[in-house]
Amino acid sequence: MIVIGSGIGGLVTATQLAAKGAKVLVLESYIIPGGSSGYFERGGYRFDVGASMIFGFGDKGTTNLLTRALEAVDVTLETIPDPVQIHYHLPNDLKLRVHRDYEKFLQELITRFPQEEKGIRKFYDQCWKVFNCLNSMELLSLEEPRYLMRVFFQEPGSCLGLVQYLPQNVGDIAKRYINDPELLKFIDIECYCWSVVPADLTPMINAGMVFSDRHYGGINYPKGGVGQIAIKLVEGLEKFGGQIQYKARVKQIILENGIAVGVELIDGKVYRGKRIVSNATRWDTFGKLIPSDSIPKAEKKWRERYQKSPSFLSLHLGVEASVLPPETDCHHIIVENWDKMEEPEGTIFVSIPTLLDPSLAPVGYHIVHAFTPSWIDDWQKLPEFEYEAKKEQAAGRIIDRLEILFPGLDAGLDYMEVGTARSHRRFLNRQDGTYGPIPAYKLKGLLGMPFNRTSIRGLYCVGDSTFPGQGLNAVAFSGFACAHRVAVDLGL
What percent of the chain lies above the pLDDT cut of 70? Predict the structure, then answer.
């Protein structure tokens, strides 16, 4: 079978199937694996392409999907626990830390909103109910009837609990228990920081996983950088007889009598497989790899429900260690104006992974990765000199805002590289550089999100365009589900 793309969703699918005895070929257009979870090296720094806030590396329960994915192919990866998931810097001098210790986090929140203590506990209790349901069952394909029956008979209460939350969004539940508008805005940014939409548009199932696992399994950073996850999965893939081919850009998926039977590369090479799995976005899969005149009705309907999220403007900085104040946390989110939270450059995300793993930078220096939503329309059709000048101006705006947290940042810069939506499109092969799909309007929780099978026989999708959506642990879930569905279809 063939997997197009070596993002984490594609690699988990590939490794799971290789471990079951399937013959697997992964085709990756770039020179290293990982996609948005890859890395690059410059001047002694090893930068993560994306964020360094990683779920799924816990050592208990069933939601530790990255740990389980590595174990399935007999590889391991050392991780470093992060005591604070996020340090928020919000309007009205609202500064909050989401501590790994659950009660410590609640107490910090309650101290700021004492009148909402009961509501705070009730809301996050609802998140724990979702998480506990997920954490009590093996997470595989919801498209496979025998699996669903088995899980239902093993954990009927958990299944019924999840069914209750499937059509619900976070905002609806938060408003049942919380009245303070500023606290509801905090719930919005709690969702926005990983779903890129506020609470009213964020599925409760996803929030239950994220808001609880950060205290249960915790945020754990992979030693050597996020790129090590993909490297280790490739190691495991090859250990079990699978193959990965780099610089292998797929031109099209080959259809015969409406069935996906292989792929053609841009150099003309053809590979045939019993099943084809696309780790590209659905916009790239249906429209580029599948001709636009062959797009199934189901995919057109999906495009009515979901739209492309923004991309990001990314600053990869190497800075003198003296720039960071003592007790600086690894992850920060900055919003100065609630009304601009969803606008381009309205929210700044900051990761400083060298606070957890100093080996990623030269001695005496740190990595600061700052990124903010940005649309590709702002970067299109610019001559090279205008493009570079615009990048420099945008970087200057972000650095000026970061100086409030880290005085002397500009003076302490040792290295800077700026990436735009055009960079994401070019290197990550994602249409318009998008982070992934977001609801075009208010949907009923996760009920609009497609699973792995498509309307084209023999073709499956995996990654953030499939259930349960965006985030590293979410796409790992998608990989487990896709591999399970394919394995059943192949009789493995």
Answer: 95
Residues of the chain with CATH 3.30.70: 311-374+380-419
CATH no., domain 311-374+380-419: 3.30.70
Give pTM, 2 decimals.
Answer: 0.92
Q: What angle do CA 469, 474, 480 make, to 5 degrees?
A: 110
> pLDDT of 67-84, one tens digit each?
999 999 999 999 999 999
Tens-place pLDDT, residues 24-52: 999 999 889 998 889 999 999 999 998 78
2-42+56-78+222-306+438-490, which class in CATH? alpha beta
In one letter, which amino acid is 488?
A: V
Bridge partners of 262, per DSSP, are 254, 272
Q: Give the whole-angstrom CA distance, residue 280 versus residue 466.
A: 11
- Delimiting residues of CATH 3.50.50.60 domain(s) in the chain: 2-42+56-78+222-306+438-490
Measured CA to CA in angstroms, residue 114 lies from 52, 97, 110, 171, 212 at distances of 32, 16, 5, 20, 22
Integer Cα distance of 142 and 103 in angstroms: 33
3 state SS for 301-313: HHHHHEEECCEEE
